[in-house]
Amino acid sequence: MKLCIPTMLPGGLMAHTAMVEEAECFTLVTIHPGGSLGVEVMHPPETERLPAILMASGVSILLSPSIPPAPSDFWQCSIRIFTGCAERAGDMLAEYRNGFMAEA
């Protein structure tokens, strides 16, 4: 499973989370069988194309502090949106994995 968390620079699990429209980068987390994590940072060229870029990267879930603008664009790309209030990307991932985030 691959997730995306909008973050501030430099990205990664220790980076501060951000709303999609204010994110400086996007932290992508792959959860491998057995629970190990793969983390990469993506700097997309345009946020308007973000849902399509994420879909092409294999992302199926967006973890965000708020519902992004035009959420239907994400849903059309089969990307589920979960909202939470964690300050750092790693904490937001933990909230999701523990079932504490609401699906939009």
Any descriptors?
single chain, 104 residues, alpha/beta, Nucleotidyltransferase, domain 5, six-stranded mixed beta sheet, 3 helices, 6 strands, 28% strand, globular
Strand order of the largest sheet: 3-2-1-4-5-6
Percent helix, as a range, is 10-25%
Rg calculated over all Cα atoms: 12 Å
According to CATH, the homologous superfamily is Dinitrogenase iron-molybdenum cofactor biosynthesis domain
User: In the CATH scheme, what's the topology name?
Assistant: Nucleotidyltransferase, domain 5
How many domain regions? 1
Q: How many H/I helices? A: 3
CATH architecture term:
2-Layer Sandwich
Span of the ends, CA to CA: 19 Å
Q: What percent strand? A: 25-35%
Structural class: alpha/beta
Question: What's the topology here?
Answer:
Elements (H helix, E strand, L loop, with lengths): L1 E6 L17 E7 L5 E6 L7 H7 L4 E4 L6 H6 L3 E4 L5 H9 L4 E2 L1
Parallel strand pairs: 1-4, 4-5
Antiparallel strand pairs: 1-2, 2-3, 5-6
